């Protein structure tokens, strides 16, 4: 029996069912694909967050590089898992879709870049550090093996190039078109790459600089200036003591030593001074060794110190290095305690108090004080040259001192100075750009004393939103004299003996407040006992407000400067590095007048 003919309507119904099934299957596949993409992206970013958290523990501490390598393995495992989740046919197909494609492409680019850095970019550096023994980073017979630094530099430079490529890929993502749920983790990943780049680049620069500084390209002589934070100057303190460090093929020896008092007052500045410099700081930085650090720009300071050293000794040094007793205390944490001829034991715990205060209480004669400082310098140097310092702790000590602007460097050799430029070692004026607005707070003693050991200082900044349009920026600085009530009875070398008209026990401070370049002052305000008035000037494009105070024991003063300047994402202040006990408690900046 023949089958009944299939009618056109039946064919249409069958075709409709097929289309419906196909559409249904397609819809299910699409939904499942979308769900899979969403879930896999969520899981992938979970691995990225785990990698970032683990990466916080990665350290290039040479004392425990094995731990860093193990941690890096965990980081790479997390990023590889994230990469596996965001690759494959589903992601490839979806990446071709409109609107959805750029979202997925941003995720893929970010995770691929993070994995490239974790799995390949930093690995050569950690491997090189593993292959460089701790012993090779210690001096032997007073000399360093420069080949160890060359090995680390080659690996660090390669890591910088790899991280740069990954960073550039993520930075090229247009986050403005992304969903908020994607924008935040991708921005976080970009920040992570920036921090990683900063770390490896810092190591690359340090290892590139160490070889020539240690005499790898021929003998070098560096004037090492020790700043005394008990008598403030803009960069930290007066140039109280100095010595020449001679290096040749990795070998280090000490040369001539001197104190700031050994330098006469020059009748004319040792180098030409700009009109701006003289207007703000007077001619004193060019006349007195103790005042070269009055200018908050280390290249200027170093050039003046070098010229004064040449004028006194006839020696033309290759560069200038500066550090303070706080940096020395960090170094002592790596070397361990050192014994002094006086019978004292200099440690990381007592270096600041012993060198900045107790020595003046013990020795009334400046010559005896200078002898104590010279002996301490030799003792610490001998400890370093003997190889007793733990390399890992020494790296940490120098990194901390560098971050706090307690170690500064300048070189007459262009290739060395090029490495220094742009780093915190350079010690330059506060920079304001499209991302950050920066004030400068530079403190200078006006008493001719060591009373700044007892002063407490803090600064704060804020955006003031009480105006129409763009907010103003405000800086507030507080100063307090915490000297004992009977401070007038302290030795004259601490109080100043009234030489500059300041009563014993009181402290006069001249603060140079550098305002962001291009800003205009809305108001200046000063309050508190002993608060003085304001002066004004301009230096290197920065408006400068000079604030003078004279505080008796227990007195406090504050100053606020409000300026009109374009708003940026970040706002802060660069301040004279003081001893830890001089750092007063944090507070909120003011937007209105209080005086």
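-> sequence recovered:
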């Amino acid at each position: 029996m023949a089958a009944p003919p299939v009618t056109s309507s039946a064919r249409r119904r069958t075709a409709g069912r097929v289309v419906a099934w196909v559409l249904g299957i397609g819809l299910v596949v699409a939904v499942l694909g979308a769900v899979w993409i969403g879930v896999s992206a969520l899981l992938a970013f979970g691995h990225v967050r785990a990698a970032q958290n683990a990466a916080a523990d990665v350290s290039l501490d040479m004392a425990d590089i094995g731990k860093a390598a193990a941690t890096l393995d965990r980081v790479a495992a997390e990023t590889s898992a994230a990469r596996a989740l965001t690759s494959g046919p589903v992601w490839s197909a979806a990446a071709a879709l409109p609107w959805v494609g750029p979202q997925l492409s941003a995720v893929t680019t970010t995770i691929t870049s993070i994995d490239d850095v974790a799995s390949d970019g930093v690995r050569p550096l950690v491997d090189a550090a593993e292959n460089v023994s701790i012993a090779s980073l210690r001096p032997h017979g007073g000399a360093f093996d420069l080949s160890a630094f060359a090995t680390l530099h080659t690996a660090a430079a390669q890591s910088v190039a790899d991280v740069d490529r990954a960073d550039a890929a993520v930075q090229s993502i247009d986050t403005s078109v992304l969903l908020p749920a994607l924008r935040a983790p991708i921005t976080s990943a970009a920040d992570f790459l920036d921090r990683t780049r900063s770390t490896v680049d810092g190591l690359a620069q340090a290892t590139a600089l160490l070889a020539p500084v240690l005499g790898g390209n021929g003998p070098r002589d560096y004037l090492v200036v020790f700043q005394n934070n008990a008598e403030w100057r803009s960069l930290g303190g007066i140039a109280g003591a100095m010595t020449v460090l001679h290096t040749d093929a990795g070998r280090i020896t000490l040369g001539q030593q001197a104190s700031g008092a050994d330098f006469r007052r020059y009748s004319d500045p040792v180098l030409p001074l700009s009109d701006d410099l003289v207007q703000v700081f007077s001619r004193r930085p060019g006349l007195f060794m103790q005042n070269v650090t009055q200018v908050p720009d280390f290249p200027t300071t170093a050039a003046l110190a070098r010229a004064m050293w040449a004028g006194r000794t006839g020696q033309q040094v290759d560069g200038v290095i500066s550090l303070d007793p706080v940096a020395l205390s960090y170094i002592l944490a790596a070397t361990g305690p050192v014994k002094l001829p006086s019978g004292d034991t200099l440690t990381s715990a007592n270096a600041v108090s012993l060198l900045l205060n107790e020595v003046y209480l013990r020795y009334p004669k400046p010559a005896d004080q200078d002898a104590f400082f010279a002996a301490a310098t030799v003792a610490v140097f001998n400890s370093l040259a003997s190889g007793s310092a733990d390399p890992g702790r020494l790296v940490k000590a120098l990194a901390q001192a560098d971050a706090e602007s307690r170690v500064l460097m300048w070189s007459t050799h262009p290739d060395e100075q090029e490495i220094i430029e742009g780093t915190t070692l350079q010690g330059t004026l506060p920079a304001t750009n499209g991302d950050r607005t920066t004030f400068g707070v530079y403190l200078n003693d006006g008493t001719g004393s060591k009373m700044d050991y007892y002063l407490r200082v803090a600064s704060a900044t804020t955006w003031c939103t009480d105006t129409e349009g763009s907010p103003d920026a405000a800086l507030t600085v507080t100063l307090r004299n915490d000297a004992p009530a009977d401070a007038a009875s302290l030795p004259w070398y601490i109080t100043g003996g009234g030489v500059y008209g300041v009563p014993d026990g009181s402290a006069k401070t001249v603060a140079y407040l550098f305002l962001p370049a291009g800003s205009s002052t809305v108001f200046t305000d000063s309050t508190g006992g002993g608060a003085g008035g304001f002066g004004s000037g301009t230096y290197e494009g920065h408006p400068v407000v000079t604030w003078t105070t004279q505080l008796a024991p227990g007195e406090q003063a504050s100053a606020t400067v409000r300026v009109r300047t374009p708003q940026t994402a970040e706002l802060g202040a660069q301040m004279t590095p003081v001893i830890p006990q001089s750092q007063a408690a944090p507070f909120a900046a003011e937007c209105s007048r209080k005086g």
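The two ends are 112 Å apart (CA to CA).
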